[in-house]
Specification:
The protein is about 70% helix and about 0% strand. The chain is mainly alpha-helical. It folds into two domains: about 100 residues, no CATH class; about 300 residues, no CATH class.
């Protein structure tokens, strides 16, 4: 390296990098020739000899994050380790994407079937919570804010100890002070999305409320395009439309059978509440996808639970006092509340996996099948009859998901555009493209086994 180039590198690391005024070149980000393991070894040798400046853009999952006065040998080791990881991720991504030779490549992966399977489990969880809510409403126990409070409390009890163990109390509270306001917004959107969606069912009929849920998918697609720089291919749009068509068939069959709930108490008010709830759901899903791709799952769910308890607790105290006093309380109601809480907690704990392996759009489209499972359970519990159009609707939704992933990358939607080409800004967690790339690099002998899963 010439003296002038070395001087520019020093100025860049000392001045421009902390201010984030410039972007790194492909070489600095770890991109290189990937034709052999020797190239990787050569790059690792070069980066190991670079001067170890303190870098503000070191991952927050680094155990040394936040320690400004590090010894020079620790700084150099951290910098070298980070650059070696970036190089390994770039190599792994290159190898993985080189395997996308056919339109059906992604369908042959475990990830695709995992997204479908987990999506159906989430749909069953939603169906179960709706069933328990119906049981509660049947005995005049209408306490939507209060009954959801237990879910956020359980999330806190499960994930807070894990977060404190993984991060330590000092670092955990440091993250809370720095990023707490972001998690508060996420929790607020989630709580209010739940509240207004449930409220919509009080005023409008079932058919209108379900139709308004399509708006959540529209919000997700638009926000992902504008804010997260996601660029949908024509087949992905077609897949979403096919899924929506399947949902339309499902709703049409309900209308034919007269299961649309009749005339609502106040259709306009109910539709407005449903539209607001669907909008908040869509925004919160996109926000959560952004969070779980950059931060560990235990951290996201911990803060979602903590702030959810606070927000939902205040809301329940204000709006559910009369309903709480008039509700029926017995052992059966307690059992329904426990079932509702356990199903919803499982739902919240599994959502990050779909958001990482897929996307917010895939998540919302998967949930369209919840209505189908609701009818299946309804035949056993409430005596519903299955219309011949229901299987057609379910098949259309699954075909829509398959179309969505046709001719896509073997990584599907797990490679997030807002994390950079080599996912540098992402966390190496379960379901992420970054972890898949690191595992691929290890398999090809391009990286060591030192990088741990950051969940």
């Amino acid at each position: 390296m010439s003296g002038q180039t070395r001087l520019w590198q020093t100025v860049h690391d000392r001045v421009f990098s902390p201010l984030r005024l410039t972007t790194k070149s492909a070489h600095d980000q770890g991109y290189q020739s990937l034709n052999s393991a020797d190239d990787m070894a050569a790059q690792s040798s070069v980066t190991a000899n670079k001067p170890g400046f303190f870098r503000p853009d070191v991952k927050e999952d680094d155990p040394n994050y936040g320690t400004a006065n590090k010894p020079s040998d620790v700084i150099g080791a951290s910098s070298s380790s980070s650059e070696a990881e970036d190089a390994a991720v770039a190599a792994g991504l290159s190898h993985l994407e080189a395997r996308s030779k056919h339109w059906y490549s992604y369908f042959a992966t475990l990830d695709f079937w995992a997204v479908i399977a987990v999506g159906q489990i989430l749909s069953l969880c939603i169906t179960a919570t709706n069933t328990f809510s119906s049981f509660l409403a049947g005995v005049n126990t209408n306490i939507p804010a209060f009954q959801t409070l237990f879910n956020y409390a359980l999330l806190t009890l499960i994930w807070l100890p894990i977060a404190l163990y993984k991060q330590g109390p000092r670092r955990f509270f440091s993250i809370a002070l720095r990023d707490g306001w972001k998690y508060f917004i996420l929790s607020f959107l989630d709580v209010e999305g739940n509240y207004f969606t449930v409220l919509a069912y009080r005023y409008t009929n079932l058919l209108s409320a379900q139709l308004l849920n399509f708006w959540a998918i529209v919000c997700v697609v638009v926000l992902s395009f504008l804010l997260l720089k996601v660029r949908y291919r024509p087949l992905q749009i077609a897949g979403i439309l096919i899924c929506c068509g399947g949902m339309g068939v499902l709703l049409a069959s309900d209308h034919i059978q007269g299961n649309n709930g009749g005339t609502g108490v106040d259709m306009l008010k109910g539709d407005l509440f449903g539209l607001l709830g669907a909008s908040l759901y869509g925004i919160s899903n996109v926000f959560e996808e952004w969070f779980v791709s950059k931060r560990p799952v235990y951290e996201v769910l911990t803060f979602l639970g903590i702030f959810g308890v606070c927000i939902n607790g205040v809301q329940a105290a204000i709006f559910d006092r009369t309903s709480f006093a008039d509700a029926t309380w017995n052992g059966q109601v307690a059992g329904w509340l426990v079932g509702y809480t356990l199903c919803l907690c499982l739902f919240y704990s599994m959502v990050p996996l779909v958001l990482r392996m897929g996307s917010a759009a895939v998540f919302d489209v998967n949930l369209l099948t919840a209505n189908f499972w609701g009818v299946i359970i309804g035949t056993r519990v409430f005596g519903y009859s299955v219309h011949w159009m229901y299987p057609i609707a379910f098949v259309l939704i699954i075909l829509g998901l398959i179309t969505y992933f046709t001719a896509g990358s073997i990584l599907g939607d797990s490679k997030k555009p807002w994390l950079g080409d080599n996912q540098r800004d992402g966390v190496a967690g379960i379901g992420t493209a970054k972890l898949k790339a690191l595992n691929e690099a290890r398999k090809k002998g391009l990286a060591g086994p030192t990088t741990a899963v950051q969940d």
